[in-house]
Design goal:
Elements (H helix, E strand, L loop, with lengths): L2 H22 L3 H21 L3 H26 L14 H23 L9 H6 L1 H9 L4 H22 L11 H6 L2 H4 L14 H12 L1
């Protein structure tokens, strides 16, 4: 057993332990920290597999951006997770059954790739391009349709999350584009014709002056 295999089993054990602690930790801050540890060990496994781009992307995007945002929101809101965890052990058998089914489905799909006796050989041109460019070519050529399906699913998930959490406020001013498009010029603008000069009526003033002189 070489050092690469030892490191793989070590990082895998840490990854599984950190993933388990994410769902069992009582504090949301501790759960987020364990999730950062899980992402870091996953990036180490990517490095062992010589996928440097995926490892760096996992560290920069998830640990450097997403998890920092999660920690900021969790620590700012100070969410009490005791009420959320009520009934955790009650629903544990159902959750374990669903997790086992998902694990079996993933194993049935991925075991075909794990049965390879050796890694596929790359051509000289692919070796010169680097794994990042080869990965991009594979994603946007061979796996283009799965990528588009995943993008559509993520877009639907974002729209659903916004629709579920959107709440109207009385003190907030909102715009209705459909009503703004229907507006006509006559509804917003009225032109009034005003004469350039106005004649001064002097008769009342002269009458008041005559009455003052008589008195």
């Amino acid at each position: 057993m070489d050092i690469t295999t030892v490191l793989f089993y070590l990082f895998s054990a840490v990854l599984l332990g950190a993933s388990f602690r994410v769902i069992t930790a009582r504090s949301t801050v501790h759960a987020a920290l364990f999730l950062i540890l899980a992402f870091f060990t996953a990036s180490c496994i990517w490095m062992l597999l010589k996928a440097e781009f995926l490892a760096i992307a996992l560290v920069l995007v998830y640990i450097g951006a997403v998890m920092v945002l999660f920690l900021f929101v969790v620590m700012m809101l100070d969410i009490n997770s005791d009420g959320v965890r009520n009934g955790f052990w009650k629903h544990l058998p159902l959750g374990g059954f669903v997790g086992a089914v998902i694990a079996l489905e993933m194993a049935a799909i991925l075991m075909g790739g794990f049965r390879l006796s050796s890694a596929p050989e790359l051509s000289a041109a692919e070796l010169q391009m680097g794994n990042t460019k080869v990965l991009g070519i594979a994603i946007y050529s061979q796996y283009l349709y799965p990528l588009e399906i995943a993008a559509v699913l993520l877009l639907v998930a974002i729209i659903a999350a916004i629709a579920l959490t959107l709440r109207s406020r009385k003190d907030a001013r909102t715009q209705i584009p459909s009503e703004q498009v229907k507006v006509k010029k006559a509804d917003r603008l009225r032109i009034i014709k005003v004469a350039p000069t106005v004649d001064v009526v002097a008769a009342p003033v002269e009458a008041a002056a005559e009455q003052g002189a008589k008195s």
